[in-house]
Amino acid sequence: MFFNLPTLLTWARIVAIPLIVGVFYWPSIDTATQNLLATALFVLFAATDWADGYLARKLNQTSAFGAFLDPVADKFLVCACVLVLVHLDRADVFVALIIIGREIAISALREWMAMIGATKSVAVHMVGKLKTTVQMVAIPFLLYDGVLLGLLDTRAWGTVLIWLAAVLTVWSMVYYLQKALPEIRARMR
Hints:
Blueprint: H1 5-23, H2 31-58, H3 64-87, H4 93-115, H5 126-144, E1 147-148, E2 152-153, H6 154-188
Antiparallel strand pairs: 1-2
């Protein structure tokens, strides 16, 4: 379904992108407030990723469109925030290239595998879920860019986590490519 509660939550992640980016261009807000607002928005909208899946199953409102839109919304949100972090000098451009490049490559691979009827070869795996989890922790840490509760240097931890996410990103891409390789070889003959 195009408009049910789970799908609307997924759409919310896409709508959130200009809100999160726009916070950093609002001239009358000081940097600390921009960081806090962007972090709160990201956490709020990232939580909809869990909520939309839960509600779709609970309300029996799963749909092919929702299954398509959900990972697209996740990728848009993560890629937009990573680009903002690069712009703010809080993430390395190399990390952004790895994360965004992988998303494009694996999306293309999944589309091609779907066209040839081999989607099970590139089904979501635990390493991909771990990559996403690490990204979803690293990004708000880097958006916040301060000391949390007087103890936690979010930039330092966020930097470590975003690099860990980049490593997991490469690992997951290699995993998915290896799973797809037999199908690719079979089609190349």
